[in-house]
Amino acid sequence: MLMSSVSIKDVAARAGVSPGTVSNVLNRPEKVAESTRVRVEKAIRELGFVRHGSASSLRAGHSRTIGLSVIDIGNPFFTDVAAGVEEGASERGYAVILGNSSGDRFKEERNLLVFAEQRVRGVLITPAGASLAKLDQLRERGISVVLVDHPAERPDQCSVAVNDVTGGSLAVSHLLDGGAERIAYVTGPLTVRQCLDRRIGAERALAAAGRDPGRALEEIATDAMNARAGQEAAEKMISQGRLPDAVFCANDLLALGVMRALLQAGVRVPEDVALIGYDDIDFASASAVSLSSVRQPTHRLGRVATELLLDECDNPESHAHRQIMFQPELVARESTR
């Protein structure tokens, strides 16, 4: 039988089920008993059936895809989030279209336009600056939206995030417990919500310890949140002869760059300068001096966001918009001991 002539009825006949059951396996696999689904999928493989995706999406008004827009896919944090999204989507019979905004609002808006043109069922987004109006426009077109790693700003939004204020407080409290008096906060642009929230948490920890945040915390903002930016920030501190007792970095990539510069200059970590990052990416435990960090449940973040999005898609009239907030975890390693 030629692949182009295989129909849903042919698959149903081979599997011994109704065409409606085959349609459910293709569109709503979670609603079909596993034994039946396996039988239908086997028939699909044997017959070489390929459904006409564009035709089915025209009939339904959307496709079996979801869009994911992240700030920096080169950051392992977002790579892990994307892996969780793909895993959750695949289990529900969806594919993922990935858009990388590079922190650029206009690029992010182009991503959203492409998602709408591709008739995605829903959108997961870590906003780089898209206005609420842009996201509302998607919802008006029947495209559900869930914010990822960004708390909801209104009760009618869905979101999955991590409490970065708590995370910043954990990091600086840990440095204070180690005896640090002067702490530098190496961060990306404070227009990035996560960077700002982590600084707020750092200031709260200092205040709780009876320290003046304005005196005890020096902020060093960079244009990017990668290892090169961290290295340049540390080289600047070294050249000016104003090394702090400890450095808190807004993510692990910055921290790894800071560590490289310190070690190259003969500054010992943690004996001379203690160092802690944020995210707990895989590289953190494998660095020259294993890096202390604040762990985020990245894979779970992506998976739960996908489940929330697809539940929202299946219940578009529901007003029970959920906002899920995970708590971060301190992971102490050699760089602060």
UniProtKB/TrEMBL annotation:
Molecular functions per Gene Ontology: DNA-binding transcription factor activity; transcription cis-regulatory region binding
Pfam families, per the entry: LacI, Peripla_BP_3
Gene3D superfamilies per the UniProt record, alphabetical: 3.40.50.2300, lambda repressor-like DNA-binding domains
UniProt keyword terms in alphabetical order: DNA-binding, Transcription, Transcription regulation
SUPFAM superfamilies assigned: lambda repressor-like DNA-binding domains, Periplasmic binding protein-like I
Domain of life according to the entry: Bacteria
Domain HTH lacI-type: 6-60
SMART domains per record: HTH_LACI
PANTHER family for this protein: HTH-TYPE TRANSCRIPTIONAL REGULATOR GALS (PTHR30146:SF109), LACI-RELATED TRANSCRIPTIONAL REPRESSOR (PTHR30146)
Protein name per Swiss-Prot or TrEMBL: LacI family transcriptional regulator
